[in-house]
Amino acid sequence: MGASEPDKKIDLSKASFLVVDASVHSLEIVMQMLRGFGVHAVSTASTIEAAQKLCGAKTFDLIIIDPGIEDGSGYSFVIDLRKSGAQNAFCPVILCSGHVRQSDVSKGRNTGANFVIAKPMAATVLLQRIMWVARDKRPFVEIGNYIGPDRRFKFEGPPPDSEGRRQTDLKSPLGDAQEPNLSNDEIDAMFKPQRVII
User: Fold this and answer.
1) Which helix (H) or strand (E) holds 111?
2) Which residue has the higher pLDDT, 181 or 79?
């Protein structure tokens, strides 16, 4: 899957996807959506062990996994995949979960996943996220125990070709930044309690 201009379509016919979910019903729904998007090569796994074997045997363009599989082993799967250095270590990963609290999003982000989607999902939402991941230009970084796409985002509004969910979402395209970004020290200083002298 390559990046393309926001107004151009992405041809998914040659892309290879892996879908990992313990629910046969969920696997079937996601497979149907992907086939509707023109994807021909879809592999499925209902266990982490099966997913690991497939990742060792094939190269994928995108992995969609329910992180709650086998009592949360989906998170460990992504961490291990990133650390493996194997052929799919840099493959984009979308977590698709039925329980998405803020803590789940943070946990998913810290595994090295590219995106988190809540179940049940509409086909349009999945397609928008796939296109967003395909166009994502964030570099992969290795910092401490973290390996994955750079977790820092500039706020550029909702993914291309989507309306956004908040009233404050900016409409694209956006212009260039008017001021330089703050350094980490400047950001940290904003959150430190300051002593007030009267």
Assistant:
1) helix 102-111
2) 79
